[in-house]
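Example (one chain per record):
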Amino acid sequence: MKRVFPLIVLLITLSVLGIMFIQMSWIRNAIYLKQTQFEREVQNSLLLARESIYSSFIRMNNLYIPDEDSKEHYLEQKFTSQSFTKEEIQQIIDRSLKKDGISQKFEFCITNLYKLPIVMSDSFPLQYINTQPYIRLTPENSYLQETLYLYVKEDKSYIIKKMAGMIAASIVFTIIILSAFALTVRTLFNQKKLSEIKSDFINNMTHELKTPLATISLAIDALTNEKVIHDADKVKYYSSMIKEENKRMNKQVEKILQAAKIERQEIKLNLQHLDVHDIIHKVTDNLILQIQEKRGTLSLKLNAPRHRVEADEVHFSNIIFNLIDNAIKYSKENLHIDIETQMSGPNYMAIKVKDNGIGMGKETQSRIFEKFYRAHTGNIHNVKGFGLGLSYVKAMVEAHGGKIKVESTLGKGSTFTITLPLI
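Predicted structure:
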């Protein structure tokens, strides 16, 4: 998996980059083709303009020319653009351009054999005379040689505007491809993370269940011993040991089942009016021995003037228990736990559980409430549990209409703050 995952990401990245490169090349080629098409349209407009100029010249002289050869011969002898005003030529060119769908402003210039202007618009840039589209205005064998140059003031965005729909569609599909790529990579990362969580969970569960099973096995072996069978005290001792270890396993299984129920939102709260301070006293009384075993101290600062909430007694007690138990588990020597209550606005109270334990980094804080996630402490089994405690706490706090947050500094301890609505 460690080798396949980077390879999949690399292949997908190369594929997306390849598709984007092809898209960009396609757009660039499409713009080039549109540019070429525009130039052909301008050239075609020049042809139309020349034919219109010829027709206008013949009408001006009231001539009837029966065939093309006679027309060609007459134009070779008589035609000159000087018969027209610049306004007339401008109108003819304008009509020709519009027939080809070109509506931009333009300037024109008609030059003689020596490229000197004969007729030109007011703003034609003479420096462009050799770079703009042109057409021989006089017939091929004419004694006079006149050339029509056309300068179309092409808006830089003209081609883009004509291709707006195509470019927009291309951008939309590129965004879709990038979004699909991001979603795929994110899914792969999530799957990788889930795979790691699953492996950690299996390892932890195996370790948690292996110890009581080993104890039960040893107790059963002892009960089959001839010396033990006839000793009522020893039978009672080993039986109670089996019973306690069985309870321990049941609790572990119950935790997992409870997590599944929370995920399916199947837990129903038995809401009643509770005194938060009373619950905290009861829970701390049950945990004081564990705190003393670690040579720790507990400080209660229950200062909230109002401290009655509507909550489920069992689950609310579990919330306080899990937070204190968590502080004990991840503690150093000389453990000290502060539990404080205070008002948080007119209708809310805050419960703070502060310890001087090992603390957490930013990454751990962002994931601490995820199911099965456990902070790394060097050895995966040095702190027992499945990583369900804090996810359960968060789910239950939110089920009671409250919020929970954590503030922590690595090596200095953590503070969990629960905010709950008051009655």
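Caption: The longest helix spans residues 164-223.
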